[in-house]
Amino acid sequence: MKKVPVWIDTDTGVDDAVALLTAVQLEKEGFFEIRGVSAVCGNAELERTFENARNVLSLAGREDIPVFPGAKKPLMTELSTAPEAHGADGLGGAEIPSSQAVREEIPAWDAIYRCARECKGELQLILLGPETNAAIALQKYRDLPSCLKRILIMGGADIGGNRTPAAEFNIYADAYAAQTVFKSGIPVVMCGLDVTMKANLTREEMEDLDTFDSKGCRLFRESSQVTRRLYEKLEGVKNYYVHDACPVLFAACPDMFYGEEAGVFVETRGKLTFGKTVSDRDTDIKFGVKNTFVVLDLDRDRFAQAVIKALKAV
Ligand code: RIB
Ligand code: CA
After folding, report:
1. Which of 44, 136, 180, 295 could connect to 259 by a Cys-Cys bridge, CB 3.0–4.6 Å?
2. Ligand 1 atom, smallest distance to 170 CA
3. Cα–Cα distance between 88 and 101 in angstroms, integer?
4. How confident is the model over 230-285, as pLDDT tens digits?
5. Which residues does the annotation mark as catalytic?
6. Domain ranges within the chain, ordered by starting residue
């Protein structure tokens, strides 16, 4: 089976780490080939997300996957991190050995473009954080849209918001970058809160992971305490939403998900709606272009099984 090339851009926080380990497992099973990873500021500062990405891949025995440093701040707004959900270091203070891999110095946007050219239009770009690196690449390389097959994101929402009532964190964190991506002409698969808030683990599944002795489960157990406490405060139950594993699993097993084509663009001027992904999926008036596949639902059991398998396999 011809291996599908993917590139993962991440603001390596807790669910990003789970997504990276899930991607490593999916590559082992032949679904795709991880051509590279790049870090972006978001959940934490770039210095942290860069180290976290390197260390998570090292934990999985994959120091061969190159990790490139990206943007230290959003395109035009100030950096606003999420320590309340991911801890100051981005991984909830979890103990994790330092990678011994070569420290890449080429900027993420140049590395993404180089890889896209090498893959001759087949590369799928998976964005798990603010879309700053992708936007810089699109601004610097005008032919990039012709070199990418599609962009799959965790971000936005047809309905909902978790940074404001109107906006999801990744989009809100760099709304101008996200607008650049949605206006690029490259097909977008949007795994927004509509589906990722259904992509949760049950109490029994969490207990199983918390008691299983693998490096992946130990990292999840140690890193996710901050997030669990946040959700417990917000919802009254120890929940865990594996937001970032959605686009990764969509790239490998799209039949695990349900969604609809729509026009989606980003509000960059509104006071109340800044960072909102405005979708015409359910409106009478349309944008006139269907640039996005809006993912709305998933087979949660299959999703959880894939994530648990990946964490136990490391
Ligand atoms: O809104 C959830 C998203 O914001 C996830 O990507 C999480 O890692 C944070 O970056
Ligand atoms: Ca993320």
Report:
1. 295
2. 4
3. 24
4. 988 888 877 799 999 999 999 999 999 999 999 999 999 999 999 999 999 999 99
5. 243
6. 4-313
